[in-house]
Amino acid sequence: MKKLIQFKNIVKNFDGTLVLKGINLDIYENEFVTLLGPSGCGKTTLLRILGGFLEPDEGTVLMDGEDISHLPPYKRDLNTVFQKYALFPHMNVFDNVAFGLNIKKEPKDIINQKVMRMLRLVGLEDYAKRGITEMSGGQQQRVAIARALVNEPKVLLLDEPLSALDAKLRKEMQRELKKIQQEVGITFIFVTHDQEEALTMSDKIVVMKDGEIQQIGTPTDIYNEPANRFVANFIGESNIIDGIMVEDFKVKFEDKVFDCVDAGFSKDEPVEVVIRPEDLDIVGPRNGKLRGIVKSVLFKGVHYETIVETSQGTSITVKMTVSEDKPVVNSEAGEMMSANDFYLDILDIDELTENFIISRADAQAWNPETSERISIYEVRHEIQKEKGSYPVTFSTSAGTTVTVNAIVAEINKVVDEEYGEEIYAVNFFKKVDEIQESLILDTDLKIWANAYAYDLEEKTAVEITEVEYDFDPQNIQPGVYDVTFKTEGYEYKVDTTDKAEVGASVGLKFGPEDLHIMRKQ
Amino acid sequence: MKRENRAFSHVYMVLLVIFFYAPIVYTIVFSFNAGRSLTRFEGVSFQWYAKMFKDSNMMQAMMYTILIAVLATVISTVVGTFTSIGLSRSNKIMKNIVEQINDLPLMNPDIVTAIGLLMLFSAVHVKKGFGTMLIAHIMFCIPYVMLSIAPKLKGLDPNLCDAAMDLGATPIQALFKVIVPQIMPGIVSGALIAFTMSFDDFVISYFVTGNGVSNISILVYTMSKRVNPSINALSTLIIVIISVFLLLVNVVPSIIGKKKAKRA
Amino acid sequence: MKQFRKMTYPYVLWISIMVVAPMLLILLYAFTKEGNSVTDFLFTFNNFKRFFVDSVFVEVLLRSLRVALVTTILCILLGYPAAYYIAKCSEGLKMRWVLVITFPTWINMLVRTYAWMGILQDDGIINKFLGLFGIQATLLHTEFAVVLGMIYNFLPFMILQIYTALTKMDGSLLEAAADLGANRTKAFMRITLPLSLPGVISGITLVFLPAVSSFFVPKLLGGGQYVMVGNLIESQFLTSGDWNFGSAISLIMVIIIMISMYITRKVDKTEVMEKRA
Prior knowledge:
The structure holds three protein chains of three kinds.
Chain A: E1 3-14, E2 17-28, E3 32-36, H1 43-51, E4 58-63, E5 66-67, E6 78-81, H2 93-103, H3 108-121, H4 137-149, E7 155-159, H5 167-184, E8 187-192, H6 195-201, E9 204-209, E10 212-217, H7 219-224, H8 229-234, E11 239-247, E12 250-253, E13 256-259, E14 269-275, E15 281-283, E16 290-299, E17 304-311, E18 315-323, E19 328-330, E20 335-338, E21 342-345, H9 354-361, E22 364-366, E23 373-374, E24 378-381, E25 388-395, E26 401-409, E27 413-416, E28 421-424, E29 428-431, H10 432-437, H11 441-448, E30 452-455, E31 460-462, E32 464-469, E33 479-487, E34 490-496, E35 505-509, E36 516-519
Parallel strand pairs in A: 3-8, 3-9, 6-7, 7-8, 18-29, 21-26
Antiparallel strand pairs in A: 1-2, 1-4, 4-5, 9-10, 11-12, 11-14, 12-13, 14-36, 15-35, 16-17, 16-35, 17-34, 18-33, 19-20, 20-22, 22-23, 24-25, 25-26, 27-28, 28-30, 30-31, 32-33
Chain B: H1 2-31, H2 47-54, H3 56-88, H4 92-107, H5 110-123, H6 130-154, H7 159-166, H8 171-182, H9 184-200, H10 203-208, H11 216-223, H12 230-263
Helix pairs in contact in B: 1-12, 2-12, 3-6, 3-9, 6-9, 7-8
Chain C: H1 9-30, H2 46-53, H3 55-87, H4 91-106, H5 109-120, H6 125-131, H7 143-168, H8 171-179, H9 184-213, H10 216-222, H11 229-238, H12 243-276
Helix pairs in contact in C: 1-12, 2-12, 3-7, 3-9, 4-7, 5-7, 5-10, 7-9, 7-10, 8-9, 9-12, 11-12
C-alpha cells in the first residue's frame, strides 16, 4: 500500500500550551484510521491541521509526497465532516450537497447527476428539497457525508461526527460509515473519544494523550496488547495491578508468582499487569489463583459486573464516646444550648478558628419553642499547643453558656506502605440523640471523627469508602464504641454470566495468556 | 381577591394603551378638522392635506427625510455588516476598542453627539447642509446595525466558514455564500432600526444641518411656535407611512414563509 | 479566517474621526477661551466658573435633574406593573403586547409630542373633561406638562427593558422557591425583583439619560420660559454662539450623567451582594 499522508514532527502551540508535541504518523491509501483519545489530547487539532484550518508551528504535512502544510483548505484534495455537521441552514439538502460542485462551476446537469447519486448512497434521494432544519440528527449526518464525498476527495476527515447522535443511532451509523468507506474505497480519518466506536470501525487506531501518540495498531493489537496503563484503561475495561517480573514468563503480584506469556524484561523489573474483566472467572474459594470477597454485583444486561476484593484497604479505628448529656436550659432568655467535649490534633492548634471549634464541639443554641437556631456569640478558650485538656466556653448574646473540654492529643494516623496511603481520624464525643437523628450517619461519622485519607505518592485525597461500627444507631446506649474507617483495597472487576452473592468468599481463576505485562512508565 | 387583582390590572393596561395612543388618534382626527383650532373639531375637511402638498417646505423636508434615511440605511448597513464580520474574527483588544467607541454615541446624550459633530464639521470647514446631515446619520446608524448583527454572528457555527472553504470556496465566496445569508435576519433588522433612527432623528440633524436643508422633525420643531394644522396632516402622513412600513416588515416575511412551507 | 479582520480597519479610522475627534473637540473647547484660533489655545477654567457662580445656570441644572429624576421614578412605578403583566401573558399575547407598546415609539417623537400641545391646552380635551366637574387647570407650559411628555416618550423603553429581564428569568426558579416554602409575595421579593433589577437599571439608563438632556420636550410643552440644560446648550451653540461655554455645559452634564449611572450600578451591585449574603 502507498503512503498517502505523512505527518512529520508536527508541533502546535495554543497560547503557550503545547497541544501537539511532535507527531509523526503515516496514513496509507484506503485505510479507515481512527484518532482516539480523551478530549484535549490534540486529535482534533491534528485533524484541523490536515484540513488546513490550522497551521502547524513546526513540522510538515505531506500528501502524495507534496508539502501541503501551508496550502489553504480550498486548495486541498480532502473534505471534512464537521463535528456538528456545519450544514448551511439557509440551503436545502440538494444545495448543501451541490455546494462544492457549484463553487467549481461544474455544468448543471452533471451536478444534478452527482448529487443525486450521492444522496442515493446515503439513502436520502427523496429528501433533496427538504430544508436542513427539518432533518433529524441522523439524516443531517448523512447529508454532511454526502456533501463531502460528492467532491470525490482522496481523504475524508470526520471530526467526532457521531457524538451528537443517541446511542442506538450511533451504532447504526457506525455500520453505515464502514459500509460507505468500503464502497467508495478512499481513506477515512476519523476522530473520536469513544473507544467502542474506534474498535468497531477502524483498520488502524492511533491512541493519543496530551499531544503525543501512545500506540498505533489494529483494534485487536490495541485491545490485547496495550502499550501502557493509559491505553489499557482507555480501551475497554481492565484490572491493572502492580507487579514484579521475576524472570521470563514469571510475574509476581499480590505476593504470589504466576505464569505468563511475556518475556524480555530485566530481572525483578517492576511492571503493570493487565487482566481484562472477561478473562477472569469466579470459582470456589479453594479452586482459584486468588481469593477474595464479593463486594458488589451490577447487572449489565449481557453479564454481571462483579467486584471482588482480594485484600483490604487502609483502615483506622477510633473511639466514639456516647453520652446522654442534656442541653443547658436558659429559661429567662428562652434558649437552649448544647456542646460536647472534643479532641484536637496537635497540628490543628496552629490554624484554630472559632468556626472550627464550634463545629468540632458541635455547639448549638436554639429557641425550644420555635426550634429556630440562635447564633453563638462568643467562644472563650485557652487552648495551648501541648497535650492536655482545656476548657472551652460558648455563649450566646443572651448569656446562655456551655463549657466543655477540648482534649489536645497526638495525631492519630495509620500509614500503609504497601498501598502508599495514610489515613487520619480522631476520637470523639457524641450525644445519643445526635446519633439517632442523623440522616446520613456514615458521612456524619466521617465529619465527627475528622477522617481523611491521602495518597502518599500523589499527595491527593483518597475516598474513605467504608465506615464500620457495631451498634444500632436507633437504639444506641451511652458508652464507648469503635468506629472504623477504610479505603478501597485491591479490587478486581470480573464479568460473569452467573450472579455471585455479595459477601461470598470466592476464588479468581485465570490462565497465563490472560495476563498482559506492561513496562512501568 | 385574586379576580379583583386581575380586573384591576386589565383596567390599568387599558389606561396605558389609551395614554400611548390618544395623541396619535388626536393627531389623525384633527388633521381632518375643517377649522384652524387644535381643540375644537368643526367638521371634516381635507384642506390641511391640500395645504401640505402645496407647501414646498413640507414637501422638501419630506423628500430630504426619505432620501437621507434611504442613503444612510444602505451605507450604514453595508459598512456595519462587513465591519461586524471583520470584528467577529478580530482579537479581543480590537473588539473591545471598537465596542467601547461604538458605545459613545449610544450612551452619550444626542445633544452631546450633535455639538461634537457640529464643531468637527466647522473645524474642517465643511459647509453644513445635506452632506453633513447624511454623514452624521451614517455615523449614528452604524452602531445600531452592528448591535443587531453581533448576536447573529455570535450564534453562528464557527465551522460553517471552514466547511465552505473545505468544499473549495475562497474566503470571499465563503463570506457571500455562507456568512452573509446566515446573518441576513440581523442585517435586515439592523437596516430597519437604522432607517427609523434616521427617519425620526431630530437633535443631531437640527445641529448639523444648514443651508435651508431640514427634515420633518426640524420642520415640526420650527413650525410648532404657531398653530398650523398642516402639521397634523404631515404627522398623519408619517404615521401612515410608518404603519404601512411596519406592517410590511412584520407581515410579509410570515406570508412568504407560509408560501414556502406550502411549496415544500 | 484572519483575512476578514482587515474589513474592520476602515471603520476604525471612521470612528476615530467621527466619534473620538468630536469628543476631544468638546473637551478642548470647554477648557479654552473664546475667540482664539486653532493654533494658539488659552487654557482656562472660566467656563466652568461662570456656570457655577451664576445661580441661574445652577438652577437650570437642578431643574433638569429634578425633572429627569421624577420622570425616571414615575417610569419605574408605572412601567414595572405593565412589564410584569405582559411577562405573565401567554406567548402569543406577549408578542402582541410588545407590538402595542413599541408601535408608538417608531413614530417620530416630535410629531407625538406636538400632539400633546393640543390635548393639554386650556380649552383642550383634558380641560373639557375636567370642566364637567367644574375644575379648570393650566396644564400646558408647566413642569407637569414637561414630565408628562417625557414619561410619554420614554415609558415604553422602561417597560421593554423590565419585560426582557422578566422573560429571561428561568420559570423554574419560582417553582423552586415555592418548593422551598416561599409564598407568592416572598417569591416575588426574593427572586423576581432582584433578578429583574438589571432590567430596571438599563431602563433607568434609557429614561434618565435622554430626559436630563432633552430640549424639545421642554420647548414644546414647557414653553419658551421653561429652560432645561438641553435648551441652555442649544442656545449657546445656535443663538449666542459661545461654543466654549456650551461645551463646558455639555461636559458638566455628561459628568453628572456618568456619576449618576455609576451610582445606580453600584446600588444595584451592592443590593445583589447583600441579597446573596
